[in-house]
Design a protein that fits this description.
Elements (H helix, E strand, L loop, with lengths): L10 H28 L4 H10 L17 H14 L1 H20 L2 H11 L5 E4 L15 E5 L2 E12 L6 E7 L9 E7 L5 E2 L14 E11 L3 E2 L5 H37 L1 E2 L2 E2 L4 H29 L5 H26 L9 H9 L9 H17 L2
Helix pairs in contact: 1-3, 3-4, 3-6, 3-7, 4-5, 4-6, 6-7, 6-8, 6-9, 7-8, 8-9, 8-10
Cofactor: FAD
Keywords: FAD, Flavoprotein, Oxidoreductase
Organism: Salinactinospora qingdaonensis
């Protein structure tokens, strides 16, 4: 039996995960260090995700996708993230862009945009603005009625897959007096007049991904509204409830990679005539990492299955994202320590994983926000006793 607990899948899910594992082994892992070094977006990996059907896992079968569950998506993201954190992040960004359409898209929107995803036309989620991170209700982008649609103005930042996606789900304020109920979601094409991307972030980690801004002064037709007008913030939060669980899967994948390189190094490397894993100062931290990752995987896949079953999964998802991202941080830290000076220098897998991990405690809701969500649930439950 493996030291770290692993999820079980049905026959169809297991076949998809096996497909992802083979791609990860043969194509994604060998490129990972190069993508990091050159800060290069891996179009060849994206092509492989599209050709294999992995990019369209969430897309319903009637639109050409696999109709996969969040549980399956998490299994695939975890496997790919173990091999290449950047490619795992790209796939997760595709899933994040799909969820608003799955939750609120009209049949026509789903057919066009979700169907397009199976042909390689990705959708990105554009919520964050300068100075408006965790407080999504404070966004300043506006959408004012103009002709047969809206004039959309503002700037979004930190967009995953920004510049690589063809469409953006943009959240803008349609009623300045209505607070959180005055925000609406729009589908915006990258090539529309007045849509400009002119900045890409130079990131610490997941350097094979593209993270861009999106400047907007564009007219969008009325049928570009996604979901109910004024209910965009609710849609964003529902999307993030799913996104947090898939980020937890990214985290467990990266944590497993850190654990594997650390434990292998601890067995290989010797001091004073003995493998360093014989020292409790090394074996005990690795034992903690194995326990951490077992708990993280259990939380992640339990949350995913709850989401798939239609159960309330917001609190469980917050717990999964919080624990898995911080478990990955501890695993990456131990990996660097086990490798010693080599773990602090390039090129070394432990060094890269340490940088790749750090964003997992920030995006799709920081660890502080997850604790806030969980803390509110604790207070609500206690008030009912």
């Amino acid at each position: 039996m493996a030291v770290i607990w692993g999820p079980t899948f049905d026959e169809d899910e297991a076949a998809w995960v096996a497909r992802a594992r083979e791609l990860a082994r043969s194509r994604f892992a060998p490129l990972a260090a190069e993508l990091d070094r050159d800060q290069r977006y891996p179009w060849e990996n994206v092509a492989a995700l599209n050709e294999s059907g992995l990019a369209g896992l969430l897309v319903p079968t009637e639109y050409g996708g696999a109709g996969g569950s969040l549980t399956l998506v998490c299994g695939v993201i975890e496997v790919i993230s173990t091999a290449c954190a950047s490619t795992g992040a790209i796939l997760n960004a595709c899933a994040l862009g799909a969820y608003p359409l799955l939750l609120a898209g009209t049949p026509q929107q789903r057919e066009h945009y979700l169907g397009g995803m199976t042909a390689g036309r990705a959708v990105s989620f554009a919520l964050t603005e300068e100075g408006v991170g965790s407080d999504a209700a404070a966004i300043r982008a506006t959408a004012e009625p103009e002709g047969e649609g809206y004039r959309l103005r503002g700037e979004k930042i930190y967009i995953g897959n920004g510049g690589a996606s063809q469409t953006y789900v943009v959240f803008a304020r349609t009623d300045p007096e209505a607070g959180s109920r005055g925000i609406t979601a729009f589908l915006v094409d990258k090539d529309a007049p007045g849509v400009v991307i002119d900045h890409y972030e130079d990131k610490m980690g997941i350097r094979g991904t593209l993270t861009s801004n999106l400047k907007l002064d564009t007219h969008v037709p009325r049928d570009s509204v996604l979901g109910e007008p004024g209910r965009g913030l609710k849609l964003a939060l529902q999307t993030l409830n799913a996104g947090r669980i898939s980020v937890a899967a990214q985290s467990t994948g990266l944590g497993l990679a850190a654990y594997e390189t650390a434990s292998a190094e601890a067995v290989r490397r010797a001091t004073f005539g003995r493998p360093i894993i014989d020292n409790q100062g090394i074996s005990f931290p690795l034992a903690d990492v194995a326990t951490d990752l077992t708990a993280a995987r259990m939380l992640t896949f339990t949350a995913a299955r709850a989401f798939d079953a239609g159960d309330a999964a917001a609190t469980l998802g917050a717990m999964a994202k919080l624990h898995a991202s911080e478990a990955a941080h501890r695993a990456a830290d131990v990996a660097v320590q086990v490798h010693g000076g080599a773990g602090y220098c390039k090129p070394n897998l432990a060094e890269r994983l340490y940088r790749d991990q750090r964003i997992l405690q920030i995006y799709e809701g920081s660890s502080e926000i997850q604790r806030l969500v969980i803390g509110r649930a604790v207070a609500d439950e206690a008030a009912l006793r």
